[in-house]
Design brief:
With about 650 residues, the chain is of the alpha+beta class. It has four domains: about 1-120, Glutaredoxin (3-Layer(aba) Sandwich); about 140-300, Nucleoside diphosphate kinase-like domain (Alpha-Beta Plaits); about 315-445, Nucleoside diphosphate kinase-like domain (Alpha-Beta Plaits, 2-Layer Sandwich); about 450-635, Nucleoside diphosphate kinase-like domain (Alpha-Beta Plaits). The protein is about 35% helix and about 20% strand. The chain has a five-stranded mixed β-sheet with strand order 1-3-2-4-5. One of its GO terms (biological process) is GTP biosynthetic process. Major role in the synthesis of nucleoside triphosphates other than ATP. This is Nucleoside diphosphate kinase B.
């Protein structure tokens, strides 16, 4: 009985219109749990409310429950069972929270109470809101925005687009409609609009690039706490790049910075702190495309072909620039590619062996021209490109022209194959996929999804860790696994056992035991090669001279303290990942030190292991520094034969 009295005194019970009007006359902040008679109020939050009341001890804070069935003002809440909390500041609705999200409820109570006290004590402006569940206003223009329930959403290919999210905090505060109208007033066009609540698993997938950040779990909990509004935005004129325009409009992610630098931005107006910053925007066009595919898988752009007016999907095709032309004319060809409306989605140089050329062109090995093709494809690095645009396969084939050089010169002298033909060479110098299906197979051949092991070493952990992690995410890597650990001396010796006889071995081991390392599994197309390129040469001096933007050029102090490590090849990466992130250890592994998370016994299989050189600048090499990201033999490629050449 005592417990029931406490509970009744904690939350005033409002069961009719007269009591409702009396409650609205209460001075201070009143948090009302709106419920229907058949399901009752939200008992799950009672202990939380009591805790908040006891901790704050503020006479201006009140709690109430309100039965919708008998209160005319709450008529539109009838027939709904979702927990709903209305925040009233001295009788005016100032915020709304749907869903029993305890952390968010507590945070909103504290914030709204502080705002109300500021109004009462200093005469500040109270920002009242409207909630669709309480008013009979005409339907907002926002309802005219197309919902994503059509089988396909088709948008002209000329439009630039980005993904915008009105986050749960802004929705809970009843600000979604207000924000949407401001978006439209600012000249943005809403191509699609969907209200949805992210499941926790969806949140983890969407924000996987932030998995290493300290706030990751709070972010996932927050983003799955209630409904968000997801929009595809463009600009009415269609020609401008909407991504930077939208990011300028929403302002910096840090709320204090937004209020200081961009007071008119959405985040400055509606955000409360960095995590609860009201709105989201894609960082660049590539991220916009990924987010678009995540939320709106049926979204596609449309263009009209000259022949039949049929719509074409945005797609990818493979382009190969063969060695003779890649050496002399690559920049000119790349400029022509960009001018033709293509985006270079993936790019790499690869040195192919004869066996790999025979595998790739299996169906052409008996042709008269194959010896010339083999000679051409192995004479130097091939530049492989994944090109993206609407109708990519068709358009790239048109730009290339006929595969026969003589025919190309006669029938289409302005095509790329005619323009970049090599004298006395019967083989054309550029390749294009023949079909959509072939394009994807060929792209997967040259750009397979890979995993690599990355290590942030002790010298970089304290000062440069966040910068390195930010650059990893910004470069499109997905951090699929992460582990922070301190190596014992025994573990470090095992880790670098191939250097055991080298004079610097003890120094290296002591350095690696000095503090925590961060072990990461990075996933991306061409992950091994791209991570090695990001790191730069092992020797920081060489990195500064040849790769000034690399991590080691900027963050490493010397060849021992060189900030980061990466696997030298795909096999090496697989072995180390399997060992470091496996829960199963073999009997031959050293015992785990009590101060460490687990033992490492994977061997560094570096390209420098076979070199007999006692100088640290050569023997300590973790990657082959003289061509660490230039031209690697594509030993990961698997047999595949395109249908046509």
């Amino acid at each position: 009985m005592a417990g029931k009295k406490k509970e009744a005194s904690l939350q005033a019970s409002v069961t009719n219109q007269e009591q409702w009007e009396e409650m609205l006359a209460t001075k201070g902040l009143t948090v009302v749990d709106v419920y229907q008679q058949w399901c009752g109020p939200c008992r799950a939050v009672v202990s939380l409310l009591r805790k908040i009341k006891n901790e704050l001890g503020d006479d201006l804070l009140h709690f109430a429950t309100a039965e919708t069935d008998s209160i005319d003002a709450l008529e539109k809440y009838r027939g709904k069972c979702e927990p709903t909390f209305l925040f009233y500041g001295s009788g005016e609705l100032v915020a709304v929270l749907r869903g029993a999200n305890a952390p968010l409820l507590q945070r909103m109570i504290v914030e709204e109470l502080a705002k109300e006290k500021l109004v009462l004590e200093q005469g500040g402006e109270r920002r009242a809101v409207k909630d669709d569940g309480l008013v009979d206003d005409e339907k907002k223009e926002v309802e005219e925005v197309p919902q994503q329930n059509e089988e396909n959403l088709i948008v002209p290919a000329s439009k630039s687009y980005t993904v915008a999210i009105i986050k749960p905090d802004a929705v809970a505060h009843g600000k979604a409609n207000e924000i949407i109208m401001k978006i439209q007033d600012a000249g943005f066009e809403i191509l699609a609009h969907e209200e949805r609540t992210l499941a926790e698993a969806e949140g983890r997938e969407f924000y996987q690039h932030k998995a290493t950040e300290a706030c990751f779990e709070d972010l996932i909990q927050f983003m799955s706490s209630g409904p968000s509004h997801v929009l595809i935005l463009s600009q009415a004129e269609g020609s401008a790049n909407v991504v930077p325009a939208w990011r300028e409009f929403i302002g910096p992610a840090d709320i204090e910075e937004a209020r200081r630098e961009k007071p008119e931005s959405l985040r400055a107006q509606y955000g409360t702190q960095t995590l609860f910053n009201a709105v989201h925007g894609s960082e660049d066009s590539d991220q916009a495309s990924r987010e678009l595919a995540f939320f709106f898988p049926n979204f596609r752009t449309a263009s009209v072909t000259e022949q039949d007016g049929e719509e074409e999907h945005v797609e990818r095709t493979l382009a190969l620039i063969r060695p003779d032309v890649a050496r002399e004319n690559r920049e000119e060809i790349l400029a022509q590619i960009h001018k033709s409306g293509f985006t270079v989605a993936l790019q790499r140089e690869v040195m192919l062996s004869e066996e790999q050329v025979r595998q790739f062109y299996f169906q052409h090995t008996e042709e008269d021209y194959f010896p010339a093709l083999l000679r051409s494809m192995t004479s130097g690095p091939v530049l492989a490109l994944a090109l993206a645009r609407a109708g990519a396969v068709h358009h790239w084939k048109n730009i290339l022209g006929p595969s026969d050089i003589n025919k190309a010169k006669e029938e289409s002298p302005d095509c790329l194959r005619a323009k970049f033909a090599v004298d006395n060479e019967p083989i054309n110098q550029l390749h294009g996929s023949a079909s959509h299906e072939e394009a994807e197979r060929e792209i997967n051949y040259f750009f397979p999804k890979q995993q690599t092991l990355a290590v942030i070493k002790p010298d970089a952990m304290e000062e440069h860790r966040e910068n390195i992690l930010e650059e990893i995410r910004g470069s499109g890597f997905c951090v699929t696994q992460l582990k922070e650990m301190v190596l014992s001396r025994q573990m470090a010796e095992e880790f670098y056992k191939e250097h055991r006889e080298k004079p610097f071995f003890s120094q290296l081991v002591e350095f690696m035991c000095r503090g925590p390392c961060m072990m990461l599994v990075l996933t991306k197309e061409n992950a091994v090669e791209e991570w090695r390129a990001m790191m730069g040469p092992t020797d920081p001096d060489q990195a500064k001279a040849t790769s000034s933007s690399s991590l080691r050029a900027r963050f490493a102090s010397d060849i021992l303290h060189n900030s980061v490590h990466g696997s030298s090849n795909e096999q090496h990466a697989e072995e180390k990942i399997r060992f470091i992130f496996s829960d199963i250890s073999s009997d031959t592994e050293p015992k785990t030190d009590s101060k460490t998370e687990r033992t490492i016994s994977a061997t560094e299989q570096d390209s420098s292991t076979d070199k007999e050189n006692t100088e640290m600048s050569r023997s300590l090499t973790e990657e082959t520094s003289d061509n660490h990201h230039q031209h690697q033999e594509g030993d990961h490629l698997t047999p595949y034969s395109p249908q046509t050449e």
